[in-house]
Amino acid sequence: MRHATFALLLVFFLAACASQGQQGAEIEQRDLFDQQQAQRRAQEEAKAKAEAEKQAQILREQEELKRQLEEQQRRQAQTGRVPGDEQPVIRPITGTTVGEAQLRGDPWTQLKEPGSLLGQRSVYYDFDRYDIKEEYVPLIEAHSKFLVGHPDLKMVVQGNCDERGSREYNLALGQRRADSVKRAMVLLGVGDKQVETVSFGAEKPVAFGQDEESWAKNRRSDIVYLNEPQQ
Q1: How many whole angstroms separate alpha carbon 16 and alpha carbon 147?
Q2: What is the CATH number of the domain that holds 175?
Q3: pTM (2 d.p.)
Q4: Among 86, 113, 130, where does a domain finish?
């Protein structure tokens, strides 16, 4: 009788242990599931935060460009200029101050020389700007003088941006950069039909780093002659 009672107690004990083991496994599974869910929520929140910060940066850039355009329109209104006749933000150019010495020799040869003004084909800009800096005025004057002396030639000015900002924003800013170079050349006597403009936005980078040095190389207008002779 005692043996039967002991056997029955042993069965109950083993059943209780098995039940506790199963409950422990279920708890571990629930804990693991909860951890995975928490990690997933944290990743989603981090992604949403990063996207929100990116959109906020784009909005700030758009607001800054809007502010610059409004400031330019205000200045035009004060000077009596009509919309559509806006000038690029550039210091006044009083004639072609390049000088004959800088363009002496065969202009076609100088067009191929990297060290000459005509060999320099890019104008660079500060972040979110399209005004021509004073250091690039001699370059623009040199190419303007060359075009004035060769009215049969044509060029295209390609506006570019760094990767920051939306595609639409960069295309618009790149176009303003290209247009600022053309307007400066027209002011120097170049025929309006000699210069075309196009914007590539951020789609034609020359540097691929994620730093200011690389971005500065991509904020530019490139001068490309359409019928440059081949040598």
Answers
A1: 97
A2: 3.30.1330.60
A3: 0.57
A4: 86
- CA 102-106-110 angle, to 5 degrees, is 60
> 207 and 127 share a domain?
yes
Number of folded domains in the chain? 2
In a domain, 138, yes or no: yes
Cα angle value 173/174/179 (rounded, 5°): 95
For the chain, 231 residues long, give each residue's pLDDT as a single digit of tens.
655 665 666 556 555 555 666 666 677 777 787 888 888 888 888 888 888 887 777 667 656 655 655 665 565 555 444 334 444 444 444 444 444 434 455 666 778 777 788 889 999 999 999 999 999 999 999 999 999 988 988 999 999 999 998 899 999 999 999 999 999 999 999 999 999 999 999 999 999 988 999 999 999 999 999 876 555
Query: Is residue 61 located within the same domain as residue 112?
Result: no
> In angstroms, rounded to a whole number, what is the distance separating the alpha carbons of residues 129 and 29?
57
**Is residue 71, in this structure, part of any structural domain at all?**
yes
Residue 64 and residue 147 in one domain: no
